[in-house]
C-alpha cells in the first residue's frame, strides 16, 4: 500500500481462514475492481466476536464445504468485516480516489423479496464480506462503490474503525423506537453493548443501565454515562432506576443464554426487548411472561449501509460518540493472530483490537506496535 494504484497482477498479503485455529498470512492477487466496484486500501479492520467464533469453532458462517451461492467463494477466505480505508481505484467514478470510506460488507442478491424492500441483511442468499466473501484483513479489499459510506477527513482512522459495530448499535436501538426519557438497560458491555449504551444516551434516554460480570467493562459503561451492575445485581439496578416498573427497553448484547433469559424479565410490562447477541441454538426466553406482560421482542442483525452505517459515521463525525476508550490495541497484519485473535481469547479486559494492514501510523505518529499494547 504505497499510495499508487495497484496494477493487474499485483499481489498482497492477506489473512485467510483455512480452518479452525488456522489463519494464514497468504500472498494473494490484489482484487481487480470492475464497473460498480471500489478498491479500498485498508487502513483499519476491527476484530470482533464473530471473527473469534470462526477462529475457534469455524466454519460457522464461512462456506467451507461448497462455494457460497452469491459470492461463489469458499474457504480459504480473507477475514475482516469491520473495515475503513481509502479509495485506491474506482473505475466507475462514484468515489474520489483517496477518499476515506467504510465499505459495505452486507451484500444481498438484489433480486429477492427482501432485497426488493431494501433489506439486504435478510437476503436468504446474502453474503457478508469477510465471512462469505473476501474481507478487509489485507492491503486491499473490493466492495460495491455505490454503497460505500464516505468518512470526513477529521475522523481519525482509529475512530472510523468503529463505524461497523457502531452501526449495529444504531440499528438495534432504531428498532426500539423513541428513546427520549426512556430507561434503557443493556445486557453485556462488550463493544456492541458499550456502543449501544452510548447511542442510547445520545438519543436522549433518561436512564442508561449496563449489566456485565467484568468490572472493567462496567467502568467503561459508566464512562458513557450508564449506571452499571453485575448480572446478580441487574434486577435491583433496573428496579431502582424505573420505580420498580422495569426497563422501557432492554437490549441483549451478550449472546449468553442466562442474559437472553433475563432480558424480558428486566423489561417492564408493555416494554421492548431487542435481541442482538447470538446465543447458542436452542436458547430460550420466558414466553409466558412475554405474553402476559405484552412485551415486544425483536431481533436485530448487522446493519444497512445507508440507514445505519451512515448514521454511525455521523455520530463519529460530530464527536457525539468517542469510541477511543474501547480501543485495546492497534496491531499490524503480521501480528493479527497473536496480538489480535489470541489476545482477545486470553485477555478478558481487552475489547476492540484494530488491525492496521498497511504500513500505517498509529495515533501520535508512533509506529503501530508489533506486540500487543496495553489499553491507552
Ligand atoms: Zn463484527
Ligand atoms: Zn436478496
Given helix and strand content, the structural type is alpha/beta
SSE order, one letter for each helix or strand: EEEHEEEEEEEHHEHEHEHEHEHEHEHE
Level-2 CATH architecture of the largest domain: Alpha-Beta Complex
Count of alpha and pi helical runs = 10
Residue windows where pLDDT falls under 50 for at least 5 positions: 360-376
How many domains would you count in the coordinates? 2
User: Whole-number average pLDDT?
Assistant: 94
Q: What bound compounds does this protein have?
A: zinc ion
Straight-line distance between termini: 27 Å
Q: If you consult CATH, what is the topology of the largest domain? A: Quinone Oxidoreductase, Chain A, domain 1
Q: For this structure, what is the CATH homologous superfamily of the largest domain?
A: Medium-chain alcohol dehydrogenases, catalytic domain
Beta-strand fraction estimate: 25-35%
Radius of gyration: 20 Å
CATH class bucket of the largest domain = Alpha Beta
GO molecular function, one term: L-iditol 2-dehydrogenase (NAD+) activity
Domain Alcohol dehydrogenase-like N-terminal: 34-153
Organism: Streptomonospora litoralis
Pfam families: ADH_N (PF08240), ADH_zinc_N (PF00107)
Mind sketching the topology for me?
Elements: E1 11-19, E2 22-29, E3 37-47, H1 49-57, E4 77-78, E5 82-89, E6 100-102, E7 106-107, E8 127-128, E9 140-144, E10 149-150, H2 157-160, H3 163-176, E11 183-187, H4 191-202, E12 207-211, H5 215-223, E13 227-229, H6 234-241, E14 247-252, H7 257-266, E15 267-275, H8 287-292, E16 296-299, H9 305-317, E17 327-332, H10 336-346, E18 352-356
Parallel strand pairs: 11-12, 11-14, 12-13, 14-15, 15-16, 17-18
Antiparallel strand pairs: 1-2, 1-4, 3-5, 3-9, 3-18, 5-6, 6-10, 7-8
This protein binds zinc ion (2 copies).
